[in-house]
Amino acid sequence: MSPHAQPRRIGFIGTYLPRQCGIATFTHDFCHAVSGQYPGTECFVVPVNDFPEGYDYPEEVRFELLEQDIESYERAADFLNFSDTEVVCLQHEYGIFGGPAGSHILALLRELQIPVVTTLHTVLEQPQSDQRRVLQEIARLSSRVVVMTERALRMLREIYRVPKEKMDLIPHGIPDMPFVDPNFFKDQFGVEGKTVVLTFGLISPGKGIEYVIRALPEVVREYPDLVYIILGATHPNLLREQGETYRLSLERLASDLSVKKHVVFYNRFVELEKLKEFLGVADVYITPYLNPGQVVSGTLAYAFGCGKAVISTPYWHAQELLAEGRGVLVPFRDSEAIARELIALLRDEVSRHAMRKRAYLMGREMTWNQVVHHYVASIHKARQSRTGRAMKRYSIKTLEQDRLTLPALRLDHLKRLSDRTGIMQHATFSLPNFKEGYCTDDNARALLLTVLLEETGDDTLEVQSLASAYAAFVNYAFDLDQKVFRNFMSFERRWLEQTGSHDAQGRALWVLGACVGRSRRRSLQMWASQLFNRALPMIADSDSLRARAFALIGISEYFKRLSGDRHVDQLRGLLTERLLEGFRQQGSEDWPWFEPQLTYANATLPHALLVSGLLANNQEALDIGLRSLRWLMKIQTAEAGHFRPIGSNGFYPRNGQRAQFDQQPIEAGATVSACWQAFVCAQDKFWLSEARRAFEWFVGRNDLGQPLYDAATGGCYDALHVDRVNLNQGAESTLAFLLALQEMRLAESAMDSYDDLVDAEQATTA
Q1: Pairing between strand 478-479 and 597-598?
Q2: Are 134 and 101 in contact (CB under 8 A)?
Q3: Distance from C-alpha of 302 to C-alpha of 435, rounded to nearest angstrom
Q4: Neighbours of 397 (CB within 10 A)
Q5: Which of 16, 413, 542, 599 has its CA 20 to 30 A from that of 136?
Q6: Which H or E element spans position 323?
């Protein structure tokens, strides 16, 4: 590379040490390799923090991203654009960025006015729709895309349609280590005279370490001096959620198999120099990972490149790296095969050392001082691809072009209304009103909110604790004998009725379905699935259209994970037909509706038909859902163009007088949800603008021009009266706002990906 081709200033985006993460190690090593090999290039880092306090970073860190704060990504783009950066090197892994499928990083990439070289650390063979969209858009916005295996290169072309000429294949970088005899280091660890087997990396159940431990009894019968060292801290995310449960289970397993004296846990995240010593002492390295689709393993690359004899399960990276006698592959979850191959490798010293030599020789091309030149060549191509293009110095958008600025998520008032029993129904101003107690309706809504918060990474430990309280309330509300949910409970925890409303039954089914279909918490999924199936049959006897609609939405959520349930699908068909029958009986050209009057939560009825129609490919349900919702939106549009929900003081009977007040937050919330579903079904941006219009009702675009959302408390006022706002901030109104806000956050993120995909398709067509 000629000196003039060297970039003067490179920005690196990814996680970064001291954060305990494989990407952090890679970004650190990459940055230092470039600055070491190209001293004329200034290198700085923009790391991603998984919590607001961040980390004690070294001086090369110049700007920090907060994982779930999308505005920090936009600010980072400005920083990079304004700081004379010539190229950005992005490390991509879905889990390190905020938003659905890590989509927040797109907010940064869209605003960048400099070339981007993106290294993909994960390429999925069967991506979810969001994952596919995000990766395709990252590839479109990047000047060059780097992958580390032939398999990843092929998948990018065939699955994600990334142009071949845009991609570079560069191996995973590794430190340069001498080819040494393991016995040289063993006295430093007190294992002289022993055979050492090593596994290292952040510890989690997907590593498959238990299968190696189960192989040890057979191995140590022949090699009683063998020691298996498991090097690495428990993965920080796992540690936060489950503590040391997995590591303790491994220790119990070793004890049960009487191999405790052969197993060593070194519970540390070690620095590079210490890692080199551990690698040096190993006679055999094992990666028993359980995910066949793992396209890159940094730990495998390290061990292989320094000349270790490697036994591995056949995940994709291992298949490529260990081919042609450079290592040994064993089936997944097969302790017998691990024992057999480990014994064979230890017996045959000649073959083992020949394997080590083949690996080490190939590893010379993987050292960072070699790999970095390939990256600089890719950077050079990226800069050339931008040559001659008109670059915008500033990126500005009209209000029509820009996405809706949403209020910041604040859960202060939600927490204020909640206690260990659940969430209280009412408030006097912002103070919880103990006298009115609790209800299942509100606890179901609150639990639904916590499930949706999981999708944006806002499910903190405190939110998870709230979710458990809400779920416990819903669970206690269910009467096992009658198979129905009671609704109202006093503050003294006494039920005020034996049988709740049909609405409460439907709302409970909605949130139970969401827990099954959306939550990542396994215990919540299992509990909700059992209760859902116990409670669902009773909804068939309900004569309430809204209860049926709530249940249908719950079924659609349930089917996100358990779509093969025939009994549930049969009931879905029955409930859908009853909604359609209501429309056939009551609907007409001038009144395309399901009932002889518009009352409350009106948008839920077309919403239910849309989700059911989409599930079953029922065109009649889809057509009626879209037609009735379009009419409802027309009815709920004021002369000035803003959203005006049906008032609760008389509602709107057919051929009667429409009530303009009181306007309830539940109407705006239900409308946001229904309009987003209409967009999902019709792919018509009209529905997104309608969802935004309904949401704006909360923040002041309404008949009185007064916001109902209270930014000071995080609550929402209870109603819009003819002359004022009702200043009480109860659970129903606050949850209507928070649910609408969270749905808008999810929708805006999904829309960003949708717009980018459309742009990419149009560019390809052109």
Answers
A1: unpaired
A2: yes
A3: 64
A4: 9
A5: 16
A6: none
Q: CA 751, 382, 384, 81: dihedral to nearest 10 degrees?
A: 60
Cα gap 529→526, rounded to integer Å: 5
Structure tokens given for 207:
């590593």
Tell me which H or E stretch contains 219: helix 209-222
DSSP assignments along 660-725, one per residue: ---B-HHHHHHHHHHHHHHHHHH--HHHHHHHHHHHHTTTT-STT----EETTTTEE-SEE-SSSE
Query: Could you give the CA distance from residue 703 to residue 221 in angstroms, rounded to a whole number?
Result: 82
What's CA 628's distance to the chain center, in Å? 33
Crossing angle (nearest 10°) for helices 461-477 and 440-454: 140
Beta strands in 545-613 (DSSP E): 597-598
The per-residue pLDDT of the chain, averaged, comes to: 92
Burial of 415 (0-12, 13-18, 19+ CB in 10 A): middle
- Reported confidence tier of residue 269, pLDDT bands at 50, 70, 90: confident
Residue 325, judged by CB atoms within 10 A of its CB (0-12, 13-18, 19+), counts as: exposed
pTM: 0.69
- Does the pLDDT value for residue 393 go beyond 80? no
CB within 8 A of 193, min separation 6: which ones?
Answer: 186, 225
pLDDT surpasses 70 at 402:
no
Q: Find the angle CA(604)-CA(610)-CA(616) to the nearest 5 degrees.
A: 135
Chain centroid, CA 756 distance in Å: 19
Ramachandran quadrant class, 59 (left: phi over 0; alpha: psi -120 to 50; beta: rest):
alpha
Question: Residue 385 corresponds to which tokens in the numbers above?
Answer: 């691809």
- The residue written with tokens 């901030």 in the block is 729
DSSP letter assigned to residue 306? T
